[in-house]
Write a structure and sequence with these properties.
The complex is a heterodimer of chains A (512) and B (341). Chain A is an alpha/beta fold and 512 residues long. Chain A contains 17 helices and 22 strands. Classes of the chains: A alpha/beta (512), B mainly alpha (341). Chains A and B meet through helix 1, helix 10 and helix 13 of A and helix 1, helix 10 and helix 11 of B. Chain B: It holds the Pfam family BPD_transp_2.
C-alpha cells in the first residue's frame, strides 16, 4: 500500500497573470481512494486537466509508477500510462447495452471474423465481476441507475488497464442508497490495486469512502491528511480558510403561525405524484420539501414553478389562483423559479448581463421597461453581480458559460431574486455547487425573507434543508409522509424520515 | 444551424475558462473579430479599385451595387429573424417570388392601384409568416420541413398566378421611382435597407422583445421558465420574416418594373449566406442585423468586382459559397482559441 502509483511534485500553472496552481504536491498510493476537495476555482479542474494532458503544466513533475510523464504528454500518452478519467457525464452511450459500451473500449470478441455477442457479453460479465459490479451485460445503459452507470464507466477504464482512475464529481446527483452501492463497488476494485482520485463537493462521502484527503485553496495545497485523523469541521475550515461561518449556524427566525399565509396549495396532483398534495406557506417562511431523488420533491417544485402543468388541484398566492403551467403569467404574479438543472436556468452563450434580465418582469412589485438602455442595464447588472458575488468581478459582458457552476447559479439566483418575488420556488438550488457559494446562496435566501417572500425549497440534500427550512414536508414514493417542525430538523432525522423506518417500508412494498 | 457554435464553448463547469480570458490581448482580439468583416470589405474595395481603377471605384458602380443588392439585403434580414429564435425559414425565397409576382400581377394584369397592391402583398406575406409560425411554435413541427413545404406551396401558387412568365407593363411613375430615385445620390432602396437594418438592430439589442428572441433561440426551456413567451416570440419572428420578404418583393418590382418567375429561388441562398456570414461579425456568435448587412454587401462587392474583370457568372456562386465556408471556419477557429483549451 505504500508505493505511490501517482506522484505530483511542485505542480504550477499560470493563466496570464493568474496563478491557477502553485507548488502543489499530491500522491496516490496503490489501492488508495484519495479525495480531492476545494471550492470552485481552487484549482481542482486545472490539476485534473493537466493530469489528463488537456493542458500543459508550467512547473513541477508528474510520475506514474515512478515513470516521469512528459510535459507535453497527450491525452493518449496519459491513457497508455494507466490513467483514466471518469467525468460527471460519464461518456457512456445510453442507447447501447452494457456489454457494447465496454466493447467500445476494448473491442468486440470475434468468431470467424464476425462479432460474437455471446463472447462479448461473457467477457463483459467477467470485467464487471472483477470490480464487484452486478449489472446485466444486456441492460441498456440508459436504463441503469446512476451508480451503476458510474461503475460501468469505471469498469471500462479498468478494462483498458487503468490503475489510476480520476472520478470527477461522479456522485453529484447520486441519492444516498446508490452512493452506498457505488462505495461498495469502488472498494472491491480498490482491493485489486486500482487507485482513485475522488473529486467531490460532498464531505459526507469523503468520510465514508476515502482513505486520505487533500484540500486545495486558491491554487495551493492547504492540507493532506488521512481521513481517520481529521474531522468534518477541520476539512470545512481547510476548504474555506476560515472565511465563512460553518454551515448550520444560520439563525432561523420562526415565522410560521405569526405571519399571514401566502401560498395555499390544494390537492395538487400530477403524473409524478402518487396522491394529492396540500400545504400552506406563510410570508417570510421557508418550507422545505425533502426526500430521496424520485420521491416527488422535484415534481412539486416543477408544478409551482411553472415547468409542469398539474392534472388537478390549485395553488393560490395571496388568495389569487396561480396560473400553473404558464411561466410568463406566474412571473407576472410575482413567482420566481430556480430550476433543478442549470440547463433550464440560463442561456450559457448570452452575456451575464443579459441573463440577469432575460425576461421582462412586469409583476405586482416590478415593472421592467420595454426599452433597455444599454449603459443603465450594465450598471444594474454590475450591481447585481456585486450583490450576489458573481466572480470574476466586473465582467458582466462575458458569456455566462465562462463562469464556474457556482457562479452561474448565483446569476440565476440574482435573476430570480432581483424582482423581489412573492413566492420563490427552488429545486435543489445548490446541487454541484461548492461549499463557499452554497453558503452565500443560502444567505441570499435569508435576506429575501425580510421582504415577506415565501420560499418553497425542494431538495434532496438533507443538510441543506435541515439548515435552511423553517418547516419540512418529507416525501416518499410521491406522497408527503411527514411534516417536521423546526426543532426537529437535523440531517439525520430528515434522512431517516426520507428512507422510512423498516416497518413503513414493508407496508409500502405491498402498494408498490 | 445555431450560430452559437461559433461562440466560445467553455464547458459550464469549467473553472479555468475565466482565467484564460482577460487582459489587453483579449480586448484587442475581440475587437479584431468584431470588425474583421468590415476590414475584409474595405480590403476587397481597395483591391478592385487598384486592379480596375476605371470601372470599379466609380460613384455609379457604388450606386448600382447599393441598389441591386437591396432586395437580397432585406431578404437576409428576413432569414435572420427565425434563425435568432432557433429556427429556419427556407420559404422566404419563395415568399419573395410570390410577393414579386403578386405585386406585378395586381398592378399590370388587374389594374389595381399600386397602394392597394402593395397592401395586399404585405397582407399575404404576413399570412404566410403566420402559417409558418403557428405550425412551428404551436403545432411544434420541425421548422425546416414546415417552411420547405410551405415554400413549395408558395412556389406553386406563384406559378399558377403568373403562368410562370415575366409580367411587365404599365406601372405608375411614382411607384417605379420609389425603387429607382436617388436622394443626395443615394439610391432609395439602399436607404430602406439601412432603415430596416437600424430598426432591427435597435429592437433586437435594446428592447425586452429582442432579448426574448435571443433567449428563445439560445435556450428555449430556460427562456420559457424565466417568463419569456417563447411561442409568441417565435410566431412574431416568422411573421416579420414574411413581412420583410413581401416588402423585398415589392421593392424588386419597383426596381425592375416587372416580375420574374425565377428570381425567388436565386435569392434564397445569398440571403442565407448573408445571415450566416453576418453572425461572425459585430456580435460574433450571434445573428445580428448590422453584421448581416455588411456580409451581404461584402459578397456583392466581391462578385461585382470579379465580374467587371471579366469573370463568368458562375463566379457568383463560387464566391458566395467560398466566403461563407471560410468565414464560418475562421470564426470557429477563433472561438476555439478564445476558450483556451
Amino acid at each position: 500500500m505504500e508505493d505511490p502509483v501517482l506522484e505530483i511534485r511542485g505542480l504550477g500553472k499560470h493563466f496570464g497573470g493568474h496563478t491557477a496552481l502553485a507548488d502543489v504536491d499530491f500522491t496516490l498510493r496503490r489501492g488508495e481512494i484519495h479525495a480531492l476537495l476545494g471550492e470552485n476555482g481552487a484549482g481542482k479542474s486545472t490539476l485534473i486537466k493537466i493530469l489528463a494532458g488537456a493542458i500543459q503544466r508550467d512547473t513541477g513533475d508528474i510520475l506514474v509508477a515512478g515513470e516521469e510523464v512528459a510535459r507535453r504528454a497527450s491525452p493518449a500518452d496519459v491513457a497508455r500510462l494507466g490513467l483514466a478519467f471518469v467525468h460527471q457525464d460519464l461518456g457512456l452511450v445510453d442507447q447501447l447495452s452494457v456489454a457494447e459500451n465496454l466493447a467500445l473500449e476494448v473491442g468486440y470478441e470475434r468468431h470467424h471474423g464476425l462479432i460474437s455477442f455471446r463472447e462479448t457479453e461473457r467477457r463483459a460479465a467477467r470485467l464487471l465481476a472483477d470490480v464487484g459490479t452486478a449489472v446485466s451485460t444486456q441492460a441498456l445503459v440508459g436504463d441503469l441507475s446512476q451508480d451503476e452507470k458510474v461503475m460501468v464507466a469505471v469498469t471500462r477504464a479498468v478494462s483498458r488497464g487503468a490503475r489510476i482512475i480520476v472520478l470527477d464529481e461522479v456522485s453529484a446527483s447520486l441519492p444516498a442508497p446508490e452512493f452506498d452501492r457505488l462505495a461498495d463497488s469502488l472498494r472491491v476494485a480498490q482491493e485489486r490495486g486500482v487507485g482513485y482520485v475522488y473529486v467531490t463537493h460532498r464531505l459526507e462521502e469523503v468520510f465514508e469512502l476515502a482513505d486520505r484527503v487533500t484540500v486545495l485553496r486558491d491554487g495551493r495545497r492547504v492540507a493532506t491528511a488521512p481521513v481517520a485523523e481529521t474531522s468534518h469541521d477541520e476539512v470545512v475550515e481547510w476548504i474555506l480558510g476560515g472565511a465563512l461561518a460553518p454551515p448550520g449556524a444560520v439563525d432561523k427566525t420562526s415565522a410560521h403561525g405569526q405571519r399571514p399565509v401566502r401560498l395555499q396549495v390544494r390537492d395538487l396532483l400530477s403524473a409524478g405524484l402518487a396522491g394529492p398534495i396540500s400545504f400552506e406557506v406563510a410570508a417570510g417562511e421557508i418550507l422545505g420539501i425533502c426526500g430521496l431523488i424520485g420521491s416527488g420533491t422535484r415534481e412539486v417544485a416543477r408544478l409551482l414553478g411553472g415547468a409542469a402543468k398539474p392534472d388537478r388541484g390549485t395553488a393560490r398566492l395571496d388568495g389569487k389562483p396561480l396560473p400553473l403551467g404558464e411561466p410568463h403569467r406566474l412571473v407576472g404574479m410575482g413567482v420566481s423559479y430556480v430550476p433543478g438543472s442549470r440547463l433550464e436556468g440560463a442561456v450559457p452563450e448570452m452575456a451575464i448581463r443579459e441573463n440577469f434580465f432575460l425576461s421582462r418582469r412586469q409583476g405586482p412589485d416590478t415593472d421592467d421597461p420595454f426599452v433597455r438602455v444599454p449603459w443603465r442595464e450594465r450598471v444594474s447588472a454590475t450591481r447585481l453581480a456585486e450583490k450576489y458575488d458573481v466572480r470574476p468581478r466586473g465582467a458582466v459582458e462575458r458569456p455566462l458559460a465562462a463562469l464556474s457552476g457556482g457562479n452561474q447559479q448565483k446569476v440565476i439566483f440574482g435573476r430570480a431574486l432581483r424582482a423581489k418575488p412573492r413566492l420563490l420556488v427552488l429545486d435543489d438550488p445548490t446541487a454541484g455547487v461548492d461549499v463557499g457559494s452554497r453558503l452565500e446562496l443560502h444567505g441570499f435566501l435569508r435576506e429575501t425573507l425580510d421582504s415577506g417572500t415565501s420560499i418553497v425549497l425542494a431538495s434532496t440534500d438533507f443538510a441543506e434543508v435541515a439548515s435552511q427550512a423553517d418547516r419540512v414536508l418529507v416525501m416518499r414514493h410521491g406522497r408527503v409522509e411527514a411534516e417536521l417542525p423546526r426543532d426537529q430538523l437535523t440531517p439525520d432525522g430528515l434522512a431517516r424520515a426520507s428512507y422510512g423506518t423498516p416497518d413503513q417500508n414493508a407496508s409500502k412494498e405491498d402498494q408498490t | 444551424m445555431s450560430p452559437t457554435s461559433t461562440e466560445s464553448q467553455a464547458p459550464a463547469n469549467s473553472e479555468d475558462a475565466d482565467q484564460v480570458r482577460g487582459g489587453l490581448g483579449h480586448v484587442v482580439r475581440s475587437v479584431m473579430y468584431k470588425y474583421a468583416l468590415v476590414a475584409v470589405l474595405l480590403a476587397v474595395i481597395g483591391l478592385f479599385s487598384t486592379v480596375n481603377p476605371d470601372v470599379f471605384p466609380t460613384f455609379a458602380n457604388a450606386q448600382t451595387i447599393a441598389s441591386t443588392q437591396s432586395t437580397i439585403a432585406l431578404l437576409a434580414l428576413a432569414a435572420m429573424l427565425p434563425l435568432i429564435v432557433g429556427h429556419i425559414d427556407i420559404s422566404i425565397g419563395f415568399q419573395f417570388g410570390l410577393a414579386q409576382g403578386l405585386c406585378a400581377y395586381l398592378i399590370v394584369n388587374m389594374g389595381t392601384s399600386a397602394i392597394l397592391a402593395v397592401g395586399a402583398v404585405l397582407a399575404v406575406g404576413l399570412l404566410v409568416g403566420l402559417l409558418n409560425g403557428v405550425l412551428v411554435a404551436k403545432v411544434k413541427l420541425d421548422s425546416f420541413i414546415v417552411t420547405l413545404a410551405v415554400g413549395i406551396l408558395v412556389l406553386g401558387a406563384t406559378q399558377w398566378l403568373t403562368g410562370d412568365v415575366t409580367i411587365s407593363g404599365q406601372m405608375p411613375a411614382w411607384f417605379l421611382s420609389l425603387g429607382r430615385a436617388n436622394v443626395a445620390g443615394i439610391p432609395l432602396p439602399f436607404i430602406y435597407v439601412v432603415l430596416a437594418c437600424a430598426a432591427l438592430w435597435l429592437t433586437l439589442e435594446y428592447t425586452a422583445w429582442g432579448r426574448s428572441c435571443y433567449a428563445t433561440g439560445g435556450n428555449p426551456r430556460a427562456a420559457l421558465l424565466a417568463g419569456v413567451r417563447t411561442e409568441r416570440v417565435t410566431i412574431q419572428a416568422f411573421l416579420l420574416a414574411g413581412l420583410l420578404s413581401a416588402i423585398s418583393g415589392c421593392l424588386s418590382v419597383m426596381i425592375l418594373g416587372a416580375s420574374s418567375p425565377t428570381i425567388g429561388l436565386g435569392a434564397l441562398l445569398p440571403a442565407f449566406a448573408g445571415a450566416f456570414l453576418g453572425a461572425t461579425s459585430i456580435r460574433p456568435g450571434r445573428y445580428n442585423a448590422i453584421g448581416t448587412l455588411i456580409a451581404v454587401y461584402l459578397v456583392a462587392v466581391g462578385i461585382t468586382g470579379l465580374q467587371q474583370l471579366g469573370a463568368a457568372s458562375y463566379v457568383q456562386q463560387l464566391f458566395n459559397g467560398g466566403a461563407l465556408l471560410i468565414a464560418v471556419a475562421l470564426a470557429r477557429f477563433a472561438a476555439t482559441r478564445r476558450s483556451g483549451t
